[in-house]
Amino acid sequence: MPVRMDKVTLVAFSSIVIALLVMGLKYAAYLATGSVALFSDALESIVNLVTALAAFWAIQVSRKPADNDHQFGHHKAEYFAAVLEGVLIVVAALLIARQAWISYNLHLTPENTMQGLAINAVATAINGAWALYLFRFGRRRRSPAFIAEAWHLTSDVISSVGVIIGLVLVVITGWTVLDPLVAVIVAVNILWSGWKVIRDSVSGLMDEAVSRSVDTEIRTIIAAEAEGALEVHDLRTRSAGRATFIEFHLVVPGSMSVAAAHAICDRIEVALMKAVEGAEVSIHVEPEAEAQHHGVLVL
């Protein structure tokens, strides 16, 4: 009986297949021409494959339910994959720069340029279409691994377009120095992409709070749904992959029953979970003597 994949697993597996296809096409383009610029593009495709494999692993781990050893879940696994992607991008950029220097010193001249460009253009189109899909899918699922992979593919597409333009100029002008020069430009672009992926991933690992707009939305919802309470204070948030952890203190009249206070908490929690995908809400109920008169005031 065939094994059925859910949508997330299917997309992650498809990234591996597409990375293999694109890597094969770009390496064929390099073999046909001997161009160091096309070599740089092929080398980055190897990184694409490794990052697709890392994303596949991380997504499977992040979706595991909480257990005794990981009582808050496995959401942050995706950030580790994203950091790995960023590091590999940087390594690829350094290797490309090294190969460009070798090509410049040896005065290597590309051959069969138009044939190689045609193959590379097909691979670039595939990467571009898949990057757009991953952006939409990753943002909808709030997946750091998919978004990091989409950014990486986008940098690859930009690099590939630069390679194509550079090699067309080589054909038109006969200036072979443009081949290693384009490779260096590709390397710099990849370095920037790698830095961005690492920076965003480290922010997630450091329990960065939600954006200001989401924080405002959370405060508005709490104020609207906390009828019967007196005050909310010490509101804190943090993001971990697809999960958003929200915690705060809810001050209620000292005479209020536990059941009534619990009903207010339930109402707030339901509203937050509807508005903020993946919300994990923790509310600490306090009597009015604990009021601090700051934070989200509920009148």
TrEMBL record:
NCBIfam families: CDF. Residues 13-206 form the Cation efflux protein transmembrane domain. The keyword Membrane applies. GO terms for molecular function: cadmium ion transmembrane transporter activity; ferrous iron transmembrane transporter activity; zinc efflux antiporter activity. One of its GO terms (biological process) is intracellular zinc ion homeostasis. The keyword Transcription regulation does not apply. This is Protein p34. The chain crosses the membrane at residues 38-59, 79-97, 117-135, 156-175, 181-198. Pfam families: Cation_efflux (PF01545), ZT_dimer (PF16916). One of its GO terms (cellular component) is plasma membrane. It is a multi-pass membrane protein. Belongs to the cation diffusion facilitator (CDF) transporter (TC 2.A.4) family. It is found in: Cell membrane. Keywords: Cell membrane, Membrane, Transmembrane, Transmembrane helix, Transport. The lineage of its organism: Bacteria, Pseudomonadati, Pseudomonadota, Alphaproteobacteria, Hyphomicrobiales. It comes from the Bacteria. InterPro entries: Cation_efflux, Cation_efflux_CTD, Cation_efflux_CTD_sf, Cation_efflux_TM, Cation_efflux_TMD_sf, CDF_Transporter. Residues 216-288 form the Cation efflux protein cytoplasmic domain.
